[in-house]
## 1
Amino acid sequence: MPPLLDVRDLEAGYGPINVLHRLSLSVDPGEIVAMIGANGAGKSTTLMTLSGVVRARAGRIVFDGKDLVADRVPAHMIVRLGLAQSPEGRKIFPRLSVLENLQMGAFTRTDPDGVAKDIEKAFTMFPILRERQHQAGGLLSGGQQQMLAIARALMARPKLLLLDEPSLGLAPQIVVQIFDVIRELNRQGVSILLVEQNARMALKVAHRGYVLETGRITFTDKADVLLHDPRIRAAYLGE
């Protein structure tokens, strides 16, 4: 089967500065692919470019057979095609309730019955969100906000879910819970591109991995191979 996401020679940046340099990667249907790297390596820029928030300057982003760059597909249409992101820092709507945040995640959809079922599914996956559904999102704890950000992205029924630093700033027990959810989502058929500074956790949950350094892919292999590579262990696992 062809890749669900196929990125070739991607370049993107801000103002006169290029952040991504001929970046190439792929995600196959049913895969979890991890992208690890230091702060400032370009990981978030990669996801924002895939989502259409940052404009690609060169290269190709082919998602589910459609070239998002050549066809200049806007961000909201990329969501409609089945690519949704849970961004770094959660970025929930702090004054909207938990329920309203979930409804916002379904803004591209026109099936109210299906939306209601998916909200119920989100509440089953994250029971605390059911308890807090009428509470303002900004009053949730950091871990609860991360659960809400993931659930909101899932409301778009994505074929590919982009997760940007889902463990950032969370207590260890919440991190374990989030990664359990990532595994379960993948078992349910959701393909995932995971950006994560916790390289050990990311590579343990992923099928394959990429290492990004200053906007360039420097290593790629099966996740378990990267996990035991002495260079990766020294640079990203503190060993």
## 2
Amino acid sequence: MNKEEIRSQMKELAKQYVDCVNAEKAGKEKAYIPASGKNIGVTEVQNMIDASLDMWLTAGRFNDEFEKSFAEKLGVKYALSCNSGSSANLLALSALTSPKLGERQLKKGDEVIAVAAGFPTTVNPIIQNGCIPVFVDCEIGTYNVDVSKIEEAISPKTKVIFLAHTLGNMYDMDKVMALAEKYKLWVIEDSCDALGAQWNGKYAGTIGHIGTYSCYPAHHITMGEGGAVVTDNPILYRILLSFRDWGRDCFCKPGVDNTCHQRFKMKLGNLPMGYDHKYTYSHIGYNLKVTDWQAAIGVAQLKRLDEFLAQRKNNAAVLLAGLKDLEQYLILPKVSEQCTPSWFGFLISVKEDAPFTKQELVEYLENHGIGTRQLFAGNLLRQPMMTTADVNIRIGAGPVKNTQTLTEDDYKNLPGTDFIMNNTFWVGCAQNITEEDTAKTVQIIHQFVKEKGGI
């Protein structure tokens, strides 16, 4: 056989293998229903084999296809892959520190609007770049930023609004963008948990100046480890590319030279005239690229995004309908009319006057084979990463404070955030969870409430 025949046979054997694995799983009741997870099919495995046999190793043809398809799917001009959603957030915030942005450059000591109820890597880049996060409280029900409180938190030093769409449910983009225009602020949409969500028909991550996404196995699509950044702004795209690729000024793809046809004809910085542009650096950057193996999975997964979103929507509908009769004790998710959520997970809050606590319900579910998760850090300001660090922050319209000196009186300025920490958790509705699994979750929650004398 020639090499193409061998490649074809390997891919056919991979299909047979995946079919065998799926046949073994079929009909087996899950001993544990996870809160999240992936759905890997034949094409994903075949693409990984293809990428391995190419022996290119770094980002290559599959990455080119993924970036092009990702941009087309979301309707944006530019998409850049990277090695995680956390790296996507780091790239997005770091890009705004570029001197190429002139008077709109984000500098040390500038302020960034944020929330404390979420994942650390939405806030970490603010601190890592020497800026001050300004924490605004969250709503109960949507679990997003309380948009009505953003304006009072804006000061002359505020440069950016950097907020995550919580578990696929979007915050009010009309109001956020209006504030951004009024005060000339950048907007970064952390859409790591919201790929496929829409606000008035526009995808999460495409309304602000920069959008970020994660392709971790728990997310809407996966590359194993992976993420992406999108923008419509050509200047921001070039800056993002530079920060992702070592900070270099050159924008050639791996394995390509002299795309600009000026490789030995420029003078930049204090370098000698004609110094190789391929080794000229305009930013203090990173290497955050993906491998072509990761991109190969992403190409196949992206084609299944609509299928996955439909399954998540159906699972969420089962949970919403099945738990509606427990609203005396539980707060179920609320969604704005303008939002079509992408349902990363299904958030539930236990009311303070319920005859049971969140902790009791969570432990009961876990003991009965139902996976649960917190809303990540709960309240970041109470986490040891903050209480032991020397970090300056602001809460709402309050003064700058150091996290080591925060008191209970300070935390009281974020009542919604503390409520989320104490009363809120989520269960799964991902594409690896069936409608039967979701119905079981509903049944176990009812069983718990009945045992507590609630019904």
## 3
Amino acid sequence: MDFKKWEPVYSEILEDMGFSREEDERAALLLSRMLDPAKTVNVSALRALIEGRGVLVCGNATGLREELLSVDAGSYVVIAADGAAAVVLDSGLVPDIIVTDLDGNVEREIEANRAGSLMVVHSHGDNIDKLEKYVPLLDNVIGSTQSVPLDNVYNFGGFSDGDRCVFLAREFCAASITLVGFDFDDENVTPIKQKKLLWARKLINGLLSE
């Protein structure tokens, strides 16, 4: 992801959501300092998993469990968005990659991580406490940010967990991207979540139409 290309979109998101770029950058710097080289992996591991393969991106909408029954998930690289990891595990699969800002069922994410899932851990201004609590418990970690990338904290594009999964798959040259567990029109969520879903729809549709 070329940050100069992403930055205008990021600035628009910050303005719309009322979030702080300074806090995002503070969180990214904290994550950068926390990452233990012995417990991180190079982004080449993502390319090795994704490039040239079909990717199944699992969002955490209520229909995910049923939708997983309708696809041969074992034939895909499975990328789970945060809380979706628990549903994927309960379906008998270990996600290849979990993209998380650590506000879902982190205990199940740790379970998946111990079973082999790579963890793309996202830093932003609202999850500094979770970074401090959970990052030391994880292995095979790659750090991410939605702001300016650092040497060991990357910006692959995207804003919320689900759309960041899609950007990740595109960044590492997936042959195809299939979405399950996405409900952009879910009315049973908070107003802030509804705004995030609007952005997710916009970002995903824009990316996949390129």
## 4
Amino acid sequence: MNERRAWLDRGIGETRGVVTLDGRPERLLIRRHDDEPRLLLGARLVARVASLEPALSTAFLELGGGAEAILPFKPDARPVRGQALEIEIRGEPRRGKLAVARVLGPAEGEPRLLSAPDLLADLAALSHGAALTQGGPARQVADEAEAEALEILHPLPGGGLIAIEPTRALTAVDVDLSDRKGGDAKRVTRQANLAALATAARLLRLKGLGGIVVFDLVGRGHDGNALMAAARAAFAPDNPGVAIGPVGRFGTMELSLPRRVQPLAERLLLEDGALSDRTLAQRLIRRLEAEAAAQPGARLTATCAPSVAEAATPLGALLAERIGARFTIAAEAGRPRERWDVRTTR
């Protein structure tokens, strides 16, 4: 079907935009009120060349406000240290990596932001101008998209599943028949692999993953032409920049996808895989907002771990501007970070 829809959840301190493909989340864009706009995909700036690494064909850029980026360059287009350039962010920073820029032309003056990306415009482009849904339904869709983006195991249509696991070097996609049934084993494995390519393409976009992706296909004797055609169709929305390799002798298929946005896992999780205090605080504030709407005039108390309470305090100030100061965020020593509750108080 390839029907896309757009959803916008305007939360406290955080706005989430979702694009769904045939009813399943395909993109999740998160903008927080304290994000650095200089480092968002599509931001345009005047930057200054701070230093050069000729052996790596890379320049380091000052963007202003303490923000930095790298600029890959060709030998015949080497910038000059101290030069001012107009640039666009083409890859957001990742854990341990700086943002990546491309040159638009010469510039003058000090490093500064010229224009920041607009979430609504991004949603319209990614959904091909689909009608926008807001309010309660959009919040539910955004919550579901966030949950799916953080899962490792994902079911396939018709049975079977895939596991998507990023590492420092690449992202591995393992295809498993699991409970997929059928009389013809070769036909079953072929259908599972085709479904895996389509499903993984959507999920990799949702998770914000790029770079080298390796599919461990199920079965043997693969129809390489059919798989190549299916991969081209599934990953067409990620162009330009997609490269697809043939099925190898060990039953694997490799792709290279452009890295454009910060992976959602880095956005929402700590390095050990646990939800960050900020992510938990955003969920707590959404719960407080929902309870306040369900119980007009009631006083509420949210009890949570101290680190979550600290992260939620500035968000609570923003919530108070919307619903009034009729709630309290209480820190409880020893409470697990991912356990909190909201109750009515007198």
